[in-house]
Structures are given as C-alpha cells and as structure tokens.
C-alpha cells in the first residue's frame, strides 16, 4: 500500500514491498498445487508440524541465522506472534515478570497484557541490553524470563556484539533465566554474530518467522527450543491453534527447498540497501548511529522537538511515523526518537515524498514550548 486514506504516506509499518517477488510466490504455489495432493494438506497435522516442513525450517535457520539444530527441535507456529505466544505460554504464568529491552517490539507488549505478564524494562546502550542491568532487574523482580532481539533490534537497530551476547548468556545461566530470542531480522545482518541459542542452548528459545524475509501472508513462524521444553510448547499449540497453518508452511518449504527463498532474501537485502541509501541522501548526518542494514530508521530528534509533537506535525504534512512511546516498556525512560519505516511503500518515489518533509521538519526551529500550545 502506497498511502492511507487521505493520501497519508505510511512510514509506520515495518514491512517490505512484496511486488518484486510475485513471480516467485506464484511459481511456488503452482508447484505445490501441481503435485495433485492438495487434499492431503487440508487435514489435521501434528501440533509441532510435519517432519518435512520442520526440516526445511531447520535448514532455513542455519542459512539465515547460523543456528544448526536437528528438525526435532523445531516447532512450527502461526507467524512470529504465534511463536512468541507459544514460548511465553510454555515458560511463564499470569502474574510473572517478563524482562524486556528498554524500548521493545510493540507486539510483545500486547501479548504480555493478554497473558497477564508484567513487563520490566532493562537498560540498554548502543550494543543492546546491559548485562549488569539485566542481573539487577532479574534479582530485584524475581524474573525468570527475558524477551530480546539481539540482532537489528526493533526499534533501535542495535546489534549485540559477541562479547555482549556472551555476557547476557552468562547472566541467564547463572540466574536460571529463560531467554526468548527473536531473530526475525537476522537474515538482514551484514555480519553474523552467534545467536544466544548457540551460546546458551539449554536456556534459550529461539523464535523467528518468514514475515520479513519472505511473505507475511504465509503465516509461517517457528520455535527452536531445548528438548525439555518441546512437549510443553507442543501442548500450547494443541490448546490454542491445534495445528499450525499447513498450506502456508508447505509453500514456505517449497521456497526453501528450491533455493528461491534465499534469492528472495537477497533481493530484500538489496531493497533495504537501496532505501537506506535514499534515506541517507536526503537526511544525511541527521541519522546518527541507526544501522543501515535494517528496514527502518531510529531517528533521534533534536532538542527543539518532542517526539509526539514531531509525529503530529509530520502527520499534518501527510506522513505517518511512530514516536518512541509505542515501544516503551513499563516505566522506562522514553528516548526522544521516532521510527521511520523505509520498505513498506512500493515505490522509491513515494518514500522520497515522505522523507523530504521529514528532513525539512528536522531543521525547523520549533521550540518545545511551541509544541505544547
């Protein structure tokens, strides 16, 4: 979608344009249909997903995240949100504390509310969660679970270096914390750091989906978990969705097994590079340390702008972005920043039309006091 009603250019949705890969999707669907066994795909499946599809996901995780596991440690879910739901339902109970990054993916906030979990934010720096802050929060609140996004974190774009990951893994082992590691953007990383599931496999549930790398409509997500947790995760699936969305998973497996999935992912990386280059040509040094490998910008605002006032002023000029408040967890200090998504609009010309007024607004001298009028 290029615009919202009223001609608003929507730079608030962290998705990628799908039209470059329409032929790939059509070919995969036709290949599945051409086998003549469509009815067999319509029956109930095992709660963890059929073995062939789990093997395909295991291969995908190794190719995109570097995480090598046997297929019997893979469970299929309905999208990444389903993976988060399964992981947290299997490891927490209503009333528990869930530790999260200081600013975090909004989907975990809505899920925690549904599950009756209390979010406690953990302080971050440019390399992600601070190990000392994690230990202090876990001990101080009696927490037993952490949700985090170590690679190209949404929204800050931060990627934990290896040393930071090792320190986080050490804290989790020492305190018995279960880590729910969200790697949905891992396929975009320019350099690959070891996953937390590699560094601390006995305490880490690794989750992902193909919503960013392939197509969100496939609704294919997955959980890679320690064996002692597999039965509990499968029980969550049986109790909630009974069986994963099979047809979408079969199309996903077709894309992976044919090699087309990796080609699509490479095209996505190319699209991100093009959109980031365009953003940098317009915004220049205003971008600070936002990582150019991912689908969005994390834009720290000048002191003359409050994040909410900036978002409102930009919307009045026909462009929608997301202020940092949407990502704030608990009573964490909220950065004076906005997230700007670059890849959901189909045409680069539309993105440029959205970024030009944003650049102009950043340079305007509006004071904080004026924003309060």
UniProtKB/TrEMBL annotation:
Keyword Chloroplast annotated: no
GO molecular function: pyridoxal phosphate binding; transaminase activity
Signal peptide: none
Domain Aminotransferase class I/classII large: 8-349
UniProt KW Ribosomal protein keyword: no
Protein name: PLP-dependent aminotransferase family protein
Keywords on record: Aminotransferase, Transferase
């Amino acid at each position: 979608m290029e615009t919202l009603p009223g001609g608003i250019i929507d730079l608030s949705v962290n998705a990628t344009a799908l039209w470059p890969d329409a032929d790939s999707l059509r070919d995969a669907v036709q290949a599945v249909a051409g086998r003549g066994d469509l009815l067999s795909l319509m029956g109930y499946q095992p709660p963890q997903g059929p073995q062939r599809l789990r093997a395909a996901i295991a291969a995908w995780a190794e190719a995109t995240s570097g995480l090598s596991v046997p297929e019997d440690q893979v469970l299929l879910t309905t999208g990444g949100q389903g993976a988060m739901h399964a992981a947290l339902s299997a490891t927490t109970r209503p009333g528990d504390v869930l530790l999260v990054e200081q600013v975090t993916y909004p989907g975990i906030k809505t899920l925690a509310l549904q599950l009756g979990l209390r979010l406690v934010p953990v302080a971050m720096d440019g390399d992600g969660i601070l190990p000392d802050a994690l230990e202090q929060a876990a001990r101080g609140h009696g927490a037993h679970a952490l949700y985090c996004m170590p690679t190209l974190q949404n929204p800050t774009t931060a990627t934990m270096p290896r040393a930071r990951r090792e320190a986080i893994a050490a804290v989790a082992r020492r305190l018995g914390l279960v880590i729910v590691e969200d790697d949905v953007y891992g396929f975009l990383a320019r350099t690959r750091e070891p996953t937390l599931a590699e560094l601390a496999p006995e305490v880490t549930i690794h989750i992902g989906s193909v919503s960013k790398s392939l197509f969100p409509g496939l609704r294919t997500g997955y959980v890679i978990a320690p064996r002692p947790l597999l039965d509990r995760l499968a029980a969550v699936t049986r109790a909630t969705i009974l069986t994963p969305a099979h047809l979408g998973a079969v199309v996903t497996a077709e894309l992976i097994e044919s090699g087309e999935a990796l080609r699509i992912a490479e095209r996505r990386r190319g699209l991100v590079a093009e959109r980031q280059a365009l953003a940098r040509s317009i915004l220049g040094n205003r971008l600070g340390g936002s990582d150019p490998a991912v689908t969005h910008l994390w834009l720290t605002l000048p002191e003359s702008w409050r994040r909410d006032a900036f978002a409102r002023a930009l919307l009045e000029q026909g462009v929608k972005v997301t202020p940092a408040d949407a990502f704030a967890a608990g009573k964490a200090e909220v950065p004076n920043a906005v997230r700007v998504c670059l890849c959901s609009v189909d045409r680069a010309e539309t993105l440029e039309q959205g970024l030009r007024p944003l650049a102009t607004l950043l340079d305007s001298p509006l004071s904080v006091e004026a924003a309060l009028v």
